[in-house]
Amino acid sequence: MPCSCLSRSTQKRVVRCLNYSLVLLLILAAAGGILALILAFAPVHQIEVTVEDARLNTFSLAAPNDSSSSSLFFSYNIAAAVAVRNPNWAMTIQHTEPLVASVVFHGRRLHDAAVVAGAGSKHRPRETRLHRIMAARERVSAAILLGDAAAEEFRKENATGVFDLEVLFSGEIKYLGFAGVFADKKDKLGFTCPLSLQLAPPGDEVVVFREVGCRPDKRERIYY
């Protein structure tokens, strides 16, 4: 009951103010609930993968020191910085399987798949993480690693000075929203990142690289 020490007009103003405040709170609560529902049930966007930087330090096909052998040896050293971004405004993404990367030349995987993000790791909404990938081997049998077709392609590209490679990604994720919404929704991931690289000069000289967007691809294309 309004205090009797206040005049009737003042009491009416206080009651009216309280009513307005209550209505405003109800409107804000309703708006917040609607916003939460919109964010929870908004379209889910797949992660985005881009190659921010890459450097080809070694990519060579050479004869052995022993001239009596006709075998060829292949050496390579490739480094890449890859950004993985969660574009969703409200959804956290969790990796249910490791996100792995492979470097491929003319359909031949050059090294064992490297784990970029482990199972259980999460990307918060709008979060971008940078991962560094390194693939390097020296004097590996070209017949085993490349095969005839890839070795021939190497000779063609070596003449131009530009080598076409791919970084392939594979994994599985699930989406976590409000109150566990979409917790059981899982997506298989596959991305292909095409790279055209020249051999970097010796030393620490900076090589200009233009960011490359990776396209979604079938998971079956990933080489294990």
TrEMBL record:
Its main location: membrane. InterPro entries: NDR1-like. GO terms for cellular component: plasma membrane; plasmodesma. Keywords: Membrane, Transmembrane, Transmembrane helix. The chain crosses the membrane at residues 20-42. It comes from the Eukaryota. One of its GO terms (biological process) is defense response to other organism. The gene is LOC100827093. This is Late embryogenesis abundant protein LEA-2 subgroup domain-containing protein. It is found in: Membrane.
